[in-house]
Amino acid sequence: MALALYEPGLGYYANDTAKFGLMPSSGSDFVTAPEMSPVFGQLLAAQVAEALQRTHTREVWEFGAGTGALALQVLDELAALGVRPDRYTIVDLSGTLRARQQLRLVKYEGLVHWADALPERLEGVVIGNEVLDAMPVQLLVRKAGVWHERGVVLQPDGSLGWEDRPTQLRPPMEIEGEHDYLTEIHLQGEAFIRTLGERMARGAAFFIDYGFGESEYFHPQRHMGTLVCHRLHKVDDDPLAEVGLKDITAHVNFTGTAVAAQEAGFEVLGYTSQAHFLINCGLGPKLDALAQGPRAMATKLMMEHEMGELFKVIGLAKGVEPWDAMGFVRGDRTHRL
């Protein structure tokens, strides 16, 4: 999965395909919330502004910034709110996406910087929209009661195939039943959260992604896992086909994210659906001010059958006194992690 997504010049996020957009006619493969409506970034900016004030920090960090749409929305709204961070740093492994981001953010030249990796120490507010789901996962499959790791092998004819090998790796909880069961574990994504926590001296972090808490993620009926691919706004379940030309993604286990965060010294500020988070941050007045077309697009951010329920938001803080962050004042589901 790491090779397919990030191999220089060949991986999906390392080539120059369109990736992000509303329609397949643009050559894009999927749409993200910032591409759907600028309201998303404007409301996230309200939470960022509050977090900057509460943590007494002056920097914003964004991971996996895509086309730069979210960064532009956040910076524009922060300016409207009278908040100007000292620095906005984007951490992105894709050189082609970085070039697109630089073009989009030219008005903030001097304020926006790019980095390839985390610094040894940081203070500030971190945001990441659909970044955890793009971190490589490992596949585990239970067959006849025995757990195997599913990996990729080269077939005699030169094609790629699956091979299952017995393993000591296990999901983080027991899976009820004796039926065959395929799932994912998120060792790299959780290691990223630990590293972020270890290096953050003071600040907060907000991650938005599709996923579930542990009990729902590893439900006995979810026996085919969550790993899927996206190309031209279509979904398939074969990551061994068209390698490098389509996105490979898995849902996030937010319980694992929260546990990794706590192990690294974070406090969990809250966990809720994207719909609740955006409503708490002021979605209602934003919708009232929009014309019919933009309002319809923005409404998709909260609708249950669109992004509102499947996408979740988790808030973390370290080195500061936890506070009742605005995004979680109603509808907090931390108790369900």
From TrEMBL:
The family database entries (InterPro entries) matched by this protein are listed as:
NDUFAF7, NDUFAF7_sf, SAM-dependent_MTases_sf
Q: Name one GO biological process term.
A: methylation
Checking Gene3D superfamilies in the record gives: 3.40.50.12710
Highest taxon of the lineage: Bacteria
Which terms in the Gene Ontology molecular function aspect does this entry carry?
protein-arginine omega-N symmetric methyltransferase activity
Keywords, A to Z, come to:
Methyltransferase, Transferase
Query: What protein does this entry describe?
Result: SAM-dependent methyltransferase
